[in-house]
């Protein structure tokens, strides 16, 4: 089997991302002394991104794209987008939990600083890969290489973060309004994730209706659902008249990472962010002319 490795900006972006993630998790495991469970998440982000990028490089090196049971027009850029978001989250979470409040210049602090720096570099490398891989005007490409496809990845990732914050501690069982918000997050996540799976698995042709029309209809529905959650969640969590707490507790200043009130605020911000993402998705989906999916 011939080995083909053509030098290109895309290849070098992948190699750089692979090296940066490898350094990030290697240094963290070597001397960062990660005792909090959040450290496991950061290690997962870096190692998962490293392994996935390595597999993509190997598949293209040995020319196995046509034998892969997935759409190679959609999978690499989908993975790169998720990897960039994973590394970005690790670049934010890691210093928040493992550098905030620590002083000194011992080996542990130095290792944590190095992991944070290389995590940021890996994020930039993956964003470069996404930029190099995305569809250009008039170019025949897979759906995931278009703006709506990349927005779907961001929407599902933001929803996953919301699920983490809303379940630790559980904050959605206050009343029917907050349960409605949870339902919105779940419905939109499941449908967006299903669209991604169908595109990567090349199953869109199996639908009994137009995939393009379904995308536009779903985007319109998601905008309405997230608009309701963006309005309802802050009212019932930060308005004293509805059982909320408008001021940040003093105890939050001494807690490591995010306290429960901070997580409620983060859910409000992320809900608004996903509303904006779905609104942009709706605009792009209404304008997009599908050449191939």
Automatic annotation (TrEMBL):
<keyword id="KW-0812">Transmembrane</keyword>
<dbReference type="InterPro" id="IPR047123">
    <property type="entry name" value="MYADM-like"/>
</dbReference>
<feature type="transmembrane region" description="Helical">
    <location>
        <begin position="75"/>
        <end position="99"/>
    </location>
</feature>
<keyword id="KW-1133">Transmembrane helix</keyword>
<feature type="transmembrane region" description="Helical">
    <location>
        <begin position="177"/>
        <end position="198"/>
    </location>
</feature>
<feature type="domain" description="MARVEL">
    <location>
        <begin position="5"/>
        <end position="138"/>
    </location>
</feature>
<feature type="transmembrane region" description="Helical">
    <location>
        <begin position="140"/>
        <end position="165"/>
    </location>
</feature>
<feature type="transmembrane region" description="Helical">
    <location>
        <begin position="218"/>
        <end position="236"/>
    </location>
</feature>
<feature type="transmembrane region" description="Helical">
    <location>
        <begin position="111"/>
        <end position="128"/>
    </location>
</feature>
<keyword id="KW-0677">Repeat</keyword>
<protein>
    <submittedName>
        <fullName>Myeloid associated differentiation marker</fullName>
    </submittedName>
</protein>
<feature type="transmembrane region" description="Helical">
    <location>
        <begin position="12"/>
        <end position="31"/>
    </location>
</feature>
<dbReference type="InterPro" id="IPR008253">
    <property type="entry name" value="Marvel"/>
</dbReference>
<dbReference type="Pfam" id="PF01284">
    <property type="entry name" value="MARVEL"/>
</dbReference>
<feature type="transmembrane region" description="Helical">
    <location>
        <begin position="43"/>
        <end position="63"/>
    </location>
</feature>
<comment type="similarity">
    <text>Belongs to the MAL family.</text>
</comment>
<keyword id="KW-0472">Membrane</keyword>
<feature type="domain" description="MARVEL">
    <location>
        <begin position="143"/>
        <end position="290"/>
    </location>
</feature>
<feature type="transmembrane region" description="Helical">
    <location>
        <begin position="264"/>
        <end position="284"/>
    </location>
</feature>
<dbReference type="GO" id="GO:0016020">
    <property type="term" value="C:membrane"/>
</dbReference>
